[in-house]
Amino acid sequence: MQLFKNTDFDFLRWKWPFIGLSLLLSAAGLISLWAKGGPKYGIDFRGGALMYVRFAGKPPIDKIRSALNKHFPVDVTEVVGSNEVIIGTDLHNDQQLNQARQVMQDTLESAFGAGESGKLDLNNSGSEALADRFRDPLQTAGVSLSEAQLQDMAKAITTARDTQHSGLITDYNSLSAVPGVTPKVIPVLQRETFLSPFNVRSTEIVGPKIGADLQHQAVLAVLYALGGMLVYIAFRFEWIYGVAAVVAVFHDTIITIGLFSLFNKEISLTVVAALLTLVGYSMNDTIVVFDRIRENLKLLRREPLESLINRSVNQTLSRTVLTSGLTLLTALSLFLFGGSVLNGFAFALVVGIIVGTYSSIFVASPILIFWQSFVESRKKRPQSAPPSARLQRESVGRRTAKVK
Amino acid sequence: MNRNLKVKAGIIVALVLVCVYGIIGIPRSRAELVQNWKNNIHLGLDLKGGTHLVLQVQLQDAFMADAETVIDRLKEQFGKQNIAFTDITRNDLASLDDADKIQITIKGVPADRTNDVRSVASDDFPDWILTPINSTDYRLTMKPSSALKLKEDTLNQTMQTIERKINGLGLAESSVQKRGRAEAEAELLVSLPGVDDPARVKALLEEQAMLELYEVKDGPFGSREEALAKHSGVLPFNTKMVPAVPRRGQDQGWYLLARIPVVRGADLRDARPSQDSQTGAWETNFVLDQDAARRFERFTEANIGNRLAIVLDGKVLEAPTIQGRISDSGRITGAANQQEASDLALNLRAGSLPARVIPEEERTVGPSLGADSIKEGLTAGLAGLIAVVFCMLVYYRGAGINATLALILNAVILIAALAYFDATLTLPGIAGVILTIGMAVDSNVLIFERIREELRTGKGVVAAVDTGFSRAFLTIVDTHVTTVVSCAFLFLFGTGPVKGFAVTLVIGLIANVFTAVFVSKTIFDWEFSRKRVATISI
Predict the structure, then answer these.
(1) Which residues from B are below 8 Å from A101, CB to CB?
(2) Long-range contacts of B513-516 (CB under 8 A, 24+ apart)
(3) Are B282 and B311 in contact (CB under 8 A)?
């Protein structure tokens, strides 16, 4: 099966419409960024506290908000598609931030903890705390366990809770399958513990100083990476190729960040990681096309630059679309199945790969053409000789013989 | 079979065996297989659950403590040499950035004793620089090189104390590392995998655990004013006021204690929790070292009937009456449960922190989220792999099988490399593995497309395959280099999970050059050696 056998699209004839499209997309993104006051930074860059809580049923958002607002202003959002909420605060006071997690957890406990004081929360305790709690009551109930057996059983209970029930046990009987939990043990569990309707999945607390540092470092990293690429490609080909490649990748990055802003998605540390990866990956397609252009410049000495570039792009079309398509497949499966933690990361990859492929074909190559016409118009040689390939080669293909 | 081919095949088989061994060892049962897998692949905090803390060490505390020691010794020296002075004080350092702005101000020295002051300063305090403010006042500031050394020493000591505290908790795989340079950031990275009660650990780490035993001069008082009133407005010489830890149902009390403690935390040899046999209450027993024991014995013998204040972190815990001579051991009562008594013992054994630590960043992943993340990562990986393999088989037919084998070997090498390098697998790391699958296939596509092109120009099968591989090799390396370079930046800039992603992607790409070129070619060669082929399925 072959999709792109001997294609002959005249890509460069459509360069203006495509550049228009690029500008449109970039503008849309930039406007969205400007309107929303910049990208939506995740907690890594902003600082603050974030807690992910899963509820057994539908989360009572208003109750959560009112219970927590007594201590400090919170932002409660529901995660679509699951019974999870994200509780966030924008605190910047170090002292308060430090206590934030404990305060949030305690407030949730008292608001939803079924009010049974003195009992331990089975869904939010560690195995050691459970073992400590059960030690004496189990003895009284006539269940004799050695210390090691007690610890093992507590560990087995928490492992079963976390791996099989996603951290939330709603019914004591579901624990009867756990090794060590005999019918005598269950009544003790019921007496000493209660099942709160929520489970804290993760917390993140980032001090304001670290957040600011990270922002700074992220921007630097992206700039350095772009600079590094420019140097590498200028070294392997010529500097104009380097500029074309960097402009294309920069365009990809702007569009991706713009789309994040449009869809109101957060830019977290992993998203920046995805962007950096894309900088490197997007270069791949561009390099393959440039490689072919260079080869053809050597082979087809008399062909005008525009049609030569067209031919090169057509020749590599099959490979470009195929590999991008396959990498896109893996990025899509990450986006669809990878879970909520990697969602932003996967979205950045999916968008970046699509836009990156597009820019390798429709942005990087036209830049070479533009540069060449620009150089030509500055030279203004007398039209004695035919406007031969020689002249056209001077700017773009100058050092072809030397390289490789 | 061609000898060359045998060697190549042998290398590949050996590599596969080494990789498989690295991942699962030589298991004798299914349980052992799972156990080996768990041992060899280290899961990051975001997959296993656990806490990650960034602590900022308040180095300025150490500078202030050092200045106080210098002030004490200065006063002693001036006393010996009969140099009069009105006051010697230090400034207050509010934050970490102010640490090296420590200053000691000496006031009121008679103008004719200048030379003596200078010689005391240069002889006994070489780390400090003396500058006169006017004829009677002087200022001491720390030399930059000494300041730097103090910063580094304090950072190291804090790190070691925290390490001891963590080891005392028995947390396997937990670690403390320095982050940033001592002159600038003074941060410690504490990684606590598997900790499901971060509140307790945080409290433990933050506690300075400075234990001191003082002679009680007077008290308890209801407030500072009450104490001052009793002593007509001025505290007696060599005493200080110390607040007490508020107990249930009581107001905050204050005690008048001797200024210098009889015993300091550094004098402790050991500390253990124990349970009172009669009341069942938990308490912490401590044992003093020899020198301190002798001092303590003399003190208690001379003070029977008086009270002794047990002060922890600047607050009086309790003030029992001395019943008889005590030599080397004592106990601290009042712990609410076993965990409290044992935590205090742990802190006393670890030693006190030379400077406070403030948490700047805290990330806790609950074990349930970790388990879910692993499940989701594996599902995504499987879906991606199946999709890619399906496409390759449909598009390249027989050669697609070749690519699939290379791909699977690529993944195996990647995971084995992680196991051998003791690298940590994080959730972004799993994403890296999945991405590697997508990118790895790129190399195969490059080669196969080239082969197809060569076949179209009419070359023979074997020649086409050879040319395809050789022409595509350089392009493959080129394309991988750019991704590897940006991963290098990622590694430098990113934190834990992101570093994991960069590492897996880089290893995957390097392994890919090997599998896509060497292994694929060998498979083709093997196919050709079996029978003469006029066409290949590609």
Answers:
(1) 198-199, 362, 364
(2) B513/B443, B513/B476, B513/B477, B513/B480, B514/B413, B515/B406, B515/B407, B515/B409, B515/B410, B515/B413, B515/B440, B516/B406, B516/B410, B516/B440, B516/B443, B516/B444, B516/B447, B516/B476
(3) no
How far is it, in rounded angstroms, from Cα B314 to Cα A252? 58
Give dist(CA B6, CA A172) in Å, integer.
Answer: 61
- Determine contact, residues B434/B380, Cβ cutoff 8 Å: yes
CA distance to A287, B377, B404, B455, B481, per residue, from B401 (Å): 28, 25, 5, 19, 27
- Interatomic CA distance for residues B381 and A342, integer angstroms: 13
Cβ(B302)–Cβ(B292) below 8 Å: no
| Per-residue pLDDT tens digits for B144-183 | 888 888 888 888 888 888 888 888 777 777 888 887 655 5
φ, ψ of residue B340 in degrees (nearest 5): -60, -45
| E-state strands within B289-387 | 308-312, 315-318, 329-335, 357-365
Q: Do A318 and B449 touch (CB under 8 A)?
A: yes
**A345 chain-B contacts, CB cut-off 8 A:** 428, 431
Residue B316 is which amino acid? V
Q: At what angle do helices A305-337 and A365-379 cross, to 10 degrees?
A: 150
Question: What domains, with CATH codes, occur in chain B?
Answer: 3-48+367-530 (1.20.1640.10), 61-145 (3.30.1240), 207-363 (3.30.1360.200)
Rounded Cα gap, residues B496 and B363, in angstroms: 11
B431 inside 8 A of chain A by CB: yes
Question: Which residues in B485-510 are b (16+ Cβ under 10 Å) and which e?
Answer: bbbbbbbebbbbbbbbbbbbbbbbbe
* Sign of the torsion angle spanned by Cα atoms B84, B89, B90, B91: negative
Cβ atoms of B38 and B489 within 8 Å: the answer is: no
**C-beta neighbour count of B361 within 10 angstroms:** 24
Low-confidence ranges of chain B (pLDDT < 70): 1-2, 180-184, 196, 233, 237-238, 247-251, 533-534
Chain A residues in contact with B505 by the CB 8 A cut-off are 277
| Per-residue pLDDT reduced to its tens digit, A13-37 | 777 888 888 888 888 888 888 888 7
| Residue B209 burial (CB count, 10 A) | 22
Which domains occur in chain A, in start order?
Answer: 11-41+207-396 (1.20.1640.10), 48-206 (no CATH)
The sheet with strand B282-288 has its strands ordered as B268-275, B282-288, B329-335
> Strand order in B357-365's β-sheet?
A75-79, A84-89, A48-55, A198-206, B357-365, B50-57, B187-193, B175-179
CA B310 to CA B335: how far, in whole Å?
14
List A residues 235-294 in contact with B (Cβ-Cβ < 8 A).
236, 269-270, 273, 276-277, 279-281, 283-284, 287-288, 291
Residue B307 CA to residue B241 CA, distance in Å, equals 15
The C-alpha atoms of residue B371 and residue A153 are separated, in whole angstroms, by 19
Q: How many residues does chain B have?
A: 538
ipTM given for this complex: 0.79
